[in-house]
Specification:
alpha/beta, 2 domains, 21 strands, TIM Barrel, Lyase, Ornithine Decarboxylase, Chain A, domain 1
Length: about 450
């Protein structure tokens, strides 16, 4: 049976339905996956992951060949996904020693890794240089001093980018705005501090300043803030050009994805066209040589590829008020709705062909917080215990933000392709919960 076309933009492109009305992902029956691996379960479609990587590369390289596309690992990182994106030719942006350790365990080429973070520890900086990462993105004055001392002590001269604050409003939620003046990230340009930081890096004998970096926020639905940030970086590079050559400009990530059926995001090509045009025009206007362009898609590479599966449990009907339907997961595996009001759709994975009356329900999690709500006011066929509920576009930031709240067990993760499923992360056990106790 065909899928409802309204759901096509928020499901992996290989998604389909069986004759029995079951959702399929990567050729695998979602109900069978839930039965075999248990729920909550996170399912990633390998074809969607690979196709997304290729589309990001093509979108930029077609008009600006000197573009490096790096995956922002904070969206979701595990050995399997790191290995997959390494095969597809992407770079990797890591923001902690733990993310670097996972990347190294996956065999990701260290020279394609950029290290981010607003308060990198001396240990993390040593680990990065020991691993042989390609670039460190310096976020503040203290880090410049630390990194120079560590690199000198190791007999290295290491390439760095300076993260600056371009003072751009990305028109997104304040919790995911990162490029404004009042932000913990980056060195502000408008205060003159960024120029001071450039001078400090240029005078650091163990560091080589090769570029500028800015990240304005996440889920940015408009291309104009990226153009503003690009113009600001170009103007700053032009101001510096007599003293310092800027070989790389990184505009970070934050490209939006569609979570709801009626809320489409710009295409990869839309973002690429706007950024590349601005970059070319700016370089020509300021007589700058064309730099290497770096972009860091994260959410937009993995969100649509991931689908979360839950088992339905209890119902609570409050006449004239609301009907709650609880599932066996919630804010411990996806805190985004509670954290900043993220919205999702839901499907009944074992009854896609249901043609009967619909009811308005709120999908609640199982955890001891009133704010543990996954989907408000979903229009669904009447839900019964043991139904399998699917929440699309769950591949980004759900798992990295997952916790053991209520001593819950973080979920298993499977990759699907060509009708086959492979477990890439097992479900935690009670022994895992106790492993660090002493």
């Amino acid at each position: 049976m065909p899928l409802d076309p309204a759901f096509a933009p928020i499901l992996p492109r290989t998604a389909g339905a069986t004759a029995q009305g079951h959702l399929t992902l990567g050729g695998c029956d979602a109900v069978d996956l839930a039965r075999e691996f248990g729920t909550p379960l996170y399912v990633f479609d390998e074809v969607e992951l690979r196709q997304g990587a290729r589309e990001w590369l093509a979108a930029f390289s077609s008009s600006y060949p000197d573009t490096t596309v790096i995956y922002a690992a904070k969206a979701y990182l595990g050995r399997a996904i790191a290995a997959l994106f390494a095969e597809e030719g992407l770079g990797l942006d890591v923001a902690s020693g733990g993310e670097l350790a996972i990347a190294c365990a996956a065999g990701f080429p260290a020279e394609r890794i950029y290290v981010h973070g607003n308060n990198k520890s001396p240990q993390e900086l040593r680990e990065a240089l020991t691993a042989g990462v390609g670039h460190v993105v310096v976020d503040n004055f203290r880090e410049a001093v630390l990194l120079n001392e560590i690199a000198a002590g190791m007999g290295k001269r290491h390439p760095v980018l300076l993260r600056v604050s371009p003072n751009v409003d990305p028109h997104t939620h304040r919790h995911i705005t990162t490029g404004a003046l009042d932000s913990k990230f980056g060195v502000p340009i408008v205060t003159g501090q960024a120029e001071e930081a450039v001078q400090a890096l240029a005078s650091s004998p163990a560091l080589e300043l090769v570029g500028l970096h800015a990240h304005i926020g996440s889920q940015v639905f408009d291309v104009e803030p990226f153009q503003q940030a690009c113009k600001t970086l170009i103007e700053f590079a032009a101001h510096l050009k007599r003293r310092h050559a800027i070989a790389q400009l990184s505009l970070g990530g934050g490209f939006a994805v569609q979570y709801m059926r009626g809320a489409p995001a710009p295409s990869r090509e839309d973002y690429a066209e706007a950024i590349v045009l601005t970059l070319k025009e700016g370089c020509e206007a300021h007589d700058l040589p064309s730099p290497r362009l770096v972009v860091e898609p994260g959410r937009s590479l993995v969100a649509r590829a991931g689908v979360a599966l839950y088992s339905v449990g209890a119902r609570k009907e409050i006449p004239g008020v609301r009907t709650y339907v609880a599932v066996d997961g919630g804010m411990a595996d996806n805190v985004r709705p509670a954290l900043y009001g993220a919205e999702y759709e839901a499907l009944v994975a074992n009854r896609l062909d249901e043609q009967g009356p619909r009811e308005r329900v709120t999908i609640a999690g199982k955890y001891c917080e009133s704010g543990d709500i996954l989907v408000r006011d979903a229009e669904l066929p009447k839900l019964w215990a043991e139904d399998v509920l699917a929440i699309p576009v769950a591949g980004a930031y759900s798992l990295p933000l997952a916790s053991n709240y209520n001593a819950s067990l973080r979920p298993a993760v499977v990759f699907v392709a060509g009708g086959r499923a492979r477990l890439v992360r097992r479900r935690e056990t009670y022994d895992d919960l106790l492993r660090c106790e002493v």
